[in-house]
Amino acid sequence: xxxxxxxxxxxxxxxxxxxxxxxxxxxxxxxxxxxxxxxxxxxxxxxxxxxxxxxxxxxxxxxxxxxxxxxxxxxxxxxxxxxxxxxxxxxxxxxxxxxxxxxxxxxxxxxxxxxxxxxxxxxxxxxxxxxxxxxxxxxxx
Length: 141
Description:
By secondary structure, the chain is an alpha+beta fold. The chain contains two helices and five strands; from the N terminus they run βαββββα. It has a five-stranded antiparallel beta sheet with strand order 1-3-4-5-2, covered by helices on one side. Helix 1 (30-49) crosses helix 2 (130-136).
């Protein structure tokens, strides 16, 4: 299951919302939540490894995503994405994510995001690069 409260996530990433994130219904559109997940995970990896992860010999491709929408998000308030790792495998990482806005410790959404590592050239499944493994190990719960 994993953490749900903001304070239970091992890492938090702040993302600025944009004017065009809101849809005609007056809330941030559901597809944007997935962009928040992608931005949080990859931004964390870039900052923590100190490298451009796009230039590694193995890259993480998204194999699965899921989002449970719990409440609306609104522009212009920033969001925080909580990151945890529920499974660290040989060639894959399963992230458990929470999206928060404002002072609430309760998430607006809970998500699952799976990276499978493949050789950058051949796209064959390979082990997770050591720099990435070292970066995400502290996130395992």
